[in-house]
């Protein structure tokens, strides 16, 4: 199972080991880890999602990445629920023979995840809790993949 | 038909899920019916440019037809990752 | 110490934890792991390097990346000596507030490492041992950074 | 002056390091002196397009002056990562 939406934290070393096990053709693994930033006095966040559609969206994102790059393996884990500053939010792993495919596919997955996967962040800081606005730069990042 | 609301749309409407009877032909018609109901719905849909919609868990828009649809979800632009 | 040239394997989870510890502004960590591929019946390789110059080259590569992107932390580990199929060769970690800087910096470090750091691979396969030729695509990848 | 050889250049020359007395003004002069010595040096430097050089651990080329240099290294294009 290459896509997971879960409350629990993930173990990047275990995920990488599982990803590359038994495939001697993998020469490059890229990981992206997203963390809760404490900028602006933020102490925690609540991550809401759309159960059912979220998994479907992540699977579509993975399929699209596999169609565009020669990938040996992909793993996407996105957490939901309450997360504190410094906690992991998301893990994307891409494995390929060569580094360029792995790098580009990981970036692609993150760009699409930011704009297509139904997650919403509510940040808790010194002035109360606020829903995070979508960033124009994320839309722009997604558009560059055509 | 099941209608879902997420994030601040859920907070404005006051609940995350409801079953409704509707003959709305499109998402736009459904939005019209909901906003006519009560002030809290009107508040949730006040700025349609900030509202996204999925029909049966697929991205949709205001013109998407609802014939045969079982689940419609309204939410703000996503902010995951 | 952000640059290491060593025979021993590395622990990506421990390295990541050390990289992000105590810095609440990190929102994105990208890792690149290079592995020994078994393609073409390769069973092992010997990785020779130039002690002294290697460390200097990696430190220059790191400094160049930090000058180009707003990075919170960088870690580069390159192994040398005898490595078997599936073994780790290199680890590059980049941490930043946002994902684009972390992705670009990791790619940049790898491109420069491939063309500027004094390492030479000798592969052992069914037909004996052979020094790996430099790849034109690595030069091209480096040139795109101007 | 210390002269180092790596990878297949080391194998062709037969050793990885040597101390030499030289008055060579540039890397190019030094290559000329070495290749004139013995066949194994000539073999190592046969294709100069495949030879890279560092002077005191800094990337250099055939025209780099050797005044004051303590360490010169010859090697093929790098293949790390």
Question: Could you provide a short overview of the structure?
Answer:
The complex is a heterotetramer, with two copies of chain A (146 residues) and two copies of chain B (81 residues). Chain A is an alpha+beta fold and 146 residues long.
Secondary-structure class of chain B: alpha+beta
How does the major sheet of chain A shape up? 4 strands, mixed
Through-space gap between termini of chain B? 30 Å
What class do helices, strands and sheet pairing of chain A give? Answer: alpha+beta
State the assembly state of the protein chains. heterotetramer
In the CATH hierarchy, what is the architecture of chain B at level 2? Roll
Give Rg of chain B in angstroms.
12 Å
Fold and architecture overview:
The complex is a heterotetramer, with 2 copies of chain A (146 residues) and 2 copies of chain B (81 residues). Chain A is an alpha+beta fold and 146 residues long. Chain A has one domain (3-143): Aldehyde Oxidoreductase, domain 3 (Alpha-Beta Complex), CATH 3.90.1170. Helices cover 35% and strands 35% of the residues of chain A. A 4-stranded mixed sheet of chain A has the order 1-4-6-2, sandwiched between helices. In chain A, a hairpin with a 2-residue loop joins strand 7 and strand 8. The two termini of chain A are 28 Å apart. The model of chain A has no long low-confidence stretch (mean pLDDT 95). Chain B is an alpha+beta fold and 81 residues long. Chain B has one domain (2-75): Beta-grasp domain (Ubiquitin-like (UB roll)), CATH 3.10.20. Chain B is 30% helix and 23% strand. Chain B has helices at 7-13, 27-37, 39-44; strands at residues 2-5, 17-19, 52-55, 58-60, 71-75. The interface between A and C is medium-sized, with 32 and 32 residues. Strand 2 (28-35) of chain A pairs antiparallel with strand 2 (28-35) of chain C.
Please describe the structure with a list of short key phrases separated by commas or semicolons:
heterotetramer, A: 146 residues, alpha+beta, Aldehyde Oxidoreductase, domain 3, four-stranded mixed beta sheet, four-stranded antiparallel beta sheet, globular, B: 81 residues, Ubiquitin-like (UB roll), five-stranded mixed beta sheet, 5 strands, 23% strand
């Amino acid at each position: 199972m290459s896509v997971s939406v879960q409350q629990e934290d993930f173990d990047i070393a275990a995920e990488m080991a599982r990803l590359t096990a038994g495939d001697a053709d993998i020469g490059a693994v890229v990981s992206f880890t997203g963390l809760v930033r404490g900028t602006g006095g933020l102490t925690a966040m609540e991550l809401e999602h759309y159960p059912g559609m979220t998994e479907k969206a992540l699977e579509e994102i993975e399929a699209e990445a596999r169609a565009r790059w020669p990938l040996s393996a992909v793993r996407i884990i996105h957490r939901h629920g309450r997360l504190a500053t410094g906690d992991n939010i998301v893990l994307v792993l891409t494995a390929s023979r060569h580094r360029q495919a792995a790098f580009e596919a990981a970036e692609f997955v993150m760009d699409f995840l930011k704009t297509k996967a139904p997650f919403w962040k509510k940040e808790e800081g010194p002035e109360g809790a606020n829903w995070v606005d979508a960033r124009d730069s994320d839309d722009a990042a997604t558009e560059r993949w055509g | 038909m099941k209608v879902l609301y997420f994030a601040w749309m859920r907070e404005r409407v006051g609940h995350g899920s409801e079953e409704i009877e509707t003959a709305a032909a499109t998402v736009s018609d459904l939005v019209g019916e909901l906003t006519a109901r009560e002030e809290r719905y009107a508040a949730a849909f006040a700025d349609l440019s900030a509202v996204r919609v999925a029909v049966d868990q697929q991205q949709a828009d205001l013109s998407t037809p609802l014939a045969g649809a079982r689940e419609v979800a309204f939410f703000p632009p996503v902010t995951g990752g």
